Amino acid sequence: MAEVYILWWRHMKRYLRTRSRIIGAVGQPLLFLLALGYGLGSVYKQAGQGNYLHFLVAGVILQTILFSGVFWGMQILFDKRFGFLKEMMVAPISRLRILLGNALGGATISLFQGALVFIIALAIGFRPDNWALFPLAALIMLILSLALTSFGAGLASMVDDFQGFQAINNFLVFPLFFLSSALYPLTNAPELLRILGTINPLSYGVDALRYSLIGETHFGLAKDMLIIGLTLVVCVWFAVNRFNRLQV
Amino acid sequence: MSMSAPIIEVRDVVKTFGKIKAVDRVSFAIKRGEIFAFLGPNGAGKSTTIKMLTTMLRPTAGELYLDGHDVTREQAKARKSFGIVFQDPAVEEELTAYENMLFHAVLYGVPKAEQQPRIRKLMALVDLWERKDSLVRTFSGGMRRRLEVARGLLHHPKILFLDEPTLGLDTQTRNILWNYVRKLSQNEGMTIFFTTHYLDEAEDVAQRIAIIDHGKIVATGTAAQLAKQTKTKNLEEAYLKLTGEGIRDEVSEDFNGLNVRSVMRGR
Ligand SMILES: Nc1ncnc2c1ncn2[C@@H]1O[C@H](COP(=O)(O)OP(=O)(O)OP(=O)(O)O)[C@@H](O)[C@H]1O
Ligand SMILES: [Mg+2]
Predict the structure, then answer these.
(1) Alpha-carbon gap, residue A113 to A26, rounded angstroms
(2) Among B51, B107, B112, B134, which would you mutate to test the A interface (most chain A Cβ atoms within 10 Å of its Cβ)?
(3) Does the Cβ of B53 fall within 6 Å of ligand 1?
(4) Cα–Cα dist A58/A56, whole Å
(5) Using an 8 Å Cβ cutoff, are B119 and B105 in contact?
(6) What distance in Å separates the CA atoms of residue B111 and residue A14, rounded to the nearest whole number?
(7) Residue B87 alpha carbon, nearest atom of ligand 1
(8) What count of CB pairs under 8 Å joins A to B?
(9) B70: part of which helix (H) or strand (E)?
(10) Which of A12, A167, B24, B66 is the residue whose CA sits 20 to 30 A from A134?
(11) Per the CB < 8 Å rule, is B89 touching A90?
(12) Looking at the complex, does the CB of residue B261 fall below 8 Å from at least one CB of chain A?
């Protein structure tokens, strides 16, 4: 396990040395929270939907975990490009462990950033409905971090350049985020958005998180947990499968 | 397996990249404990062969064995038998020199008690101990190279691949490196497989040499045997006679590669 630890340790070192990354990664969700939360808050209230800021917190936490998870998973791509991946890939340990160490590193970082956004939300006045459900929220964030980092690692194993990374962000990650229930409730959404939101696994992640924070759910917690559990399994399988084929 | 069985064996190996035949039916065998040099012009297929031997690339055809393990089918076992210094940079810039060494020591299974003393000894050997806490990002090209060489020597594998280890190193460091490598071979029976463009290094250090050109091995033997085969006076003349005097088209490509690399370093 020492090998898995050292792979994880390297990500921590990298992360803590570049504070700008911490600020950058939390900045975008914070902007969403403030601009949308306050900007659309009154419209949302007039529509009889309650407090939008409260609704949005789960969405921006998911946003943080999604983007940093995929980004840190994609670190493999950067390592490939700058040569460091070779150093890991010819080490006398199994690829599974290499992947595990890297994925755990990325997941720790995205979990930490998700937690940071949660704390910021608390600072601007957000309060969870029921603190007793907080451990559930933490568990959901952990599962999502692992799943999305694995997803990023799998994708990184398939593409060869930064343009590929950009393309994935623009054509996969952004749509996944905007077409989930992160920013708007699916209940009254137009038919098309509701259908897309229902087949998007991220909707279930954000729904579960929202339930644990403010007690609102669209699909029901049992279904949510089932789908995010399945998503984790599929993402890990995808990462292992792609990473095993990777040539450096 | 018996001690006399070759520790590295390559049989009819082919590697193609699209239309390019980088390695074209190469076969050779290397004895346990031997110091073997692989020489050839730019783009001859040296690195590609090493990448296949070290599980980084899959061969298009043919078989490769390391210490009795089929490299394609038993990758994990094959990986336990070797260490490598890559031709291209492979250090983590956001870690310090010491951290890069520690990372390698743990990942490559150096026993815990030996990690610190070995790292210290090797970093002192390449004159980097004073700079151990500097981020590699701040290192010059030669310093990075020295770090990579020291790192490659950290764990003591049965086989050590050195792909142009002396590229960009000053004369002092080159001498230190080759003396150390000779000692490893003598004291630990380590097998050394290296490539270089400095023919004097090959002549001094290697016990046997193979010359590869356009993906094919054109001659194998000791430096003296190669000179004799080609009716020339020394390795350099033999090499030029075997591979021709012309410059390879790959040179310009390779030059670009170096430029990109130095730009990346300069970031
Ligand atoms: N990943 C790749 N994709 C396409 N072509 C490649 C790839 N790697 C190597 N080649 C080609 O294979 C040939 C052999 O390259 P290789 O790196 O093995 O040469 P080399 O003998 O190590 O040369 P040098 O002395 O310049 O390091 C070259 O023509 C090169 O362009
Ligand atoms: Mg080469």
Answers:
(1) 7
(2) B107
(3) no
(4) 6
(5) yes
(6) 25
(7) 27
(8) 72
(9) strand B69-70
(10) A12
(11) no
(12) no
Return the residue matching tokens 């290094």: B201
Q: Whose CA is nearest to atom 2 of ligand 1?
A: B17
Q: Within its chain, how far is the Cα of A190 from the centroid?
A: 25
* Cα separation, B121 vs A178, whole angstroms: 55
Q: What is the DSSP letter of B96?
A: B
DSSP letter at A169 equals I
**Euclidean distance between CA atoms B70 and A8, whole angstroms:** 31
Are B26 and B45 within 8 A, CB to CB? yes
Ligand 1 atom nearest to B41, measured from its CA = 25
Question: Can you tell me the distance from the alpha carbon of B236 to that of B214, in angstroms, rounded to the nearest whole number?
Answer: 18
Domain extents in chain A: 2-245
* Structural Rg of chain A based on CA atoms: 18
Q: List beta partners, residue B159.
A: B82, B191
Instruction: Determine the residue of chain A that is closest to B104 in CA distance.
Output: A87
Give B123's contacts (C-beta < 8 A, 6+ positions apart): B97, B98, B101, B129, B132, B147, B150
- What is the number of the ligand closest to the CA of B249? 1
Containing B145, the helix (H) or strand (E) segment is helix B141-152
Q: Tell me which residue in B86, B103, B109 faces A86 most closely, judged by beta carbons.
A: B86
User: Whose alpha carbon is nearest atom 18 of ligand 1?
Assistant: B45
This complex has an ipTM of 0.89
Beta strand B208-213 with B35-39: parallel, antiparallel or unpaired?
parallel
Task: State the DSSP string of A109-125.
Answer: HHHHHHHHHHHHHHHTT
The verdict on A1 touching B (C-beta cutoff 8 Å) is no
Q: Give the whole-angstrom CA distance, residue B181 versus residue B175.
A: 10
Closest CB to A6 among B91, B103, B264 = B103
pLDDT by residue, tens only, chain B of 267 residues: 555 789 999 999 999 999 999 999 999 999 999 999 999 999 999 999 999 999 999 999 999 999 999 999 998 899 999 999 999 999 999 999 999 999 999 999 999 999 999 999 999 999 999 999 999 999 999 999 999 999 999 998 999 999 999 998 999 999 999 999 999 999 999 999 999 999 999 999 999 999 999 999 999 999 999 999 999 999 999 999 999 877 765 444 444 444 444 444 433
Neighbours of B30 (CB within 10 A): 21
Q: What is the 3-state secondary structure (H, E, C) of B73-91?
A: CCHHHHHCCEEEECCCCCC
Q: Residue B62: count other Cβ atoms within 10 Å of its Cβ.
A: 17
Q: Is the CB of B255 under 6 A from ligand 1?
A: no
